Amino acid sequence: MKLAFVNKLIELAEQDPRIMLLTGDLGFQIFDDFQNRFGSRFVNVGVAEAQMVCAAAGLAFVGWKPVTYSIASFMTSRCYEQIKISVAYPHLPVVIVGAGGGFAYGSSGVTHHAADDIALMSSIPGLSIVLPGDPNEVEQLLPQIFKLSRPTYFRIGRGKEPLYEVKDPAVLGQARLLHDGQDIAILSTGDIASEVLSAVKALNCQEIFPIAYQFHTIKPLDTITLGNLLKKTKHIITVEEHISHGGLNSAVRGWLSTQKNTPELIGLSADDEFVLGSPEQHEIRSKCGINDKAIVDEVLRLSKNC
């Protein structure tokens, strides 16, 4: 996703001279082309994420369209107050990019894990939350974000996330249908969507056809799609590389609590504990039960009751 993000940002910056990129001592080599093309519109503030956010707020206040970039854990928890007060409070259109959300930097340890970023960012009033699932969604959603008049948290993967082919385009604020089916719906956000599609493929081989949606936009939540799912499903499974509260499952559960005759909601998410040691992302997904095998097992269990 990183290369898709940078390439699309360069394309957009060619069209709009107000776009700027600020990074917190990251992005060496992948940002070289942007820097060579746009010079002073690229700023490396060093290891000073909080100051980067304040600088972006000032730039946005005088008419620039700044993008801040850092590893997701640094971009959110390290400068939460600055995002809340300097960016969100005055409703400034800053694009806050967190790279390697969830456990993408799993082997780097707890300091680099960002399984709480959605919870942190979604608690800030007026801030949109967008988690593309693959490079194609990055390319489709980024231009739409620049058209907003409010700040956005944009969580992208670390890199080399698998592409998937989907008929429906990625539209900001609308869940994207990955696979049609019946009875059971699987909702994903972020690059965990590839695990969902792998699970759906395995289930189809067993003549089980769940519905799969990618909720790349968590805030604002697509309640229209959720409303339609109430009429055709008995079970809804959310899958996210995030802790169990404050993310997609919490958002869906909160909305369902306002409705009548709702389907059963099951959440597959990260454990409510720190991940110690230096496991890789795929190992953490397996341990937490948020990989394709865990999804298949859960759907098989539920399908017996459908």
Order of helices and strands: HEHEHEHHEHEHEEEHEEHEHEHH
Count every helix, treating DSSP H or I runs of 4 or more residues as helices: 12
Shape field: globular
The rounded Rg comes to 19 Å
Query: Mean pLDDT, nearest integer?
Result: 95
Low-pLDDT sequence parts: none
Strand order in the largest sheet? 2-1-3-4-6-5-10
Strand fraction? 15-25%
**SS elements, strand count:** 12
* Helix coverage percent: 25-40%
User: What assembly state would you assign to the polypeptide chains in this entry?
Assistant: single chain
Biggest sheet features? 7 strands, mixed
- Name the structural class: alpha/beta
Q: End-to-end span in angstroms?
A: 37 Å
Fold blueprint:
Blueprint: H1 2-15, E1 19-23, H2 32-38, E2 42-44, H3 49-61, E3 65-71, H4 72-76, H5 80-88, E4 95-99, H6 117-122, E5 128-130, H7 135-145, E6 152-156, E7 176-179, E8 183-188, H8 193-204, E9 211-214, E10 217-219, H9 223-230, E11 233-243, H10 248-256, E12 264-270, H11 281-288, H12 292-303
Parallel strand pairs: 1-2, 1-3, 3-4, 4-6, 5-6, 8-9, 8-11, 11-12
Antiparallel strand pairs: 5-10, 7-9
Helix pairs in contact: 1-2, 1-7, 3-5, 8-12
Descriptive notes:
The strands form 2 sheets. The protein has a 7-stranded mixed sheet with strand order 2-1-3-4-6-5-10, sandwiched between helices. It has a 5-stranded mixed sheet with strand order 7-9-8-11-12, with helices on both faces. α1 (2-15) runs parallel beside α2 (32-38), α1 packs parallel to α7 and α8 (193-204) packs across α12. 47% of the residues are buried. It has helices at residues 2-15, 32-38, 49-61, 72-76, 80-88, 117-122, 135-145, 193-204, 223-230, 248-256, 281-288, 292-303; strands at residues 19-23, 42-44, 65-71, 95-99, 128-130, 152-156, 176-179, 183-188, 211-214, 217-219, 233-243, 264-270. With 306 residues, the protein is an alpha/beta fold. It contains 12 helices and 12 strands.
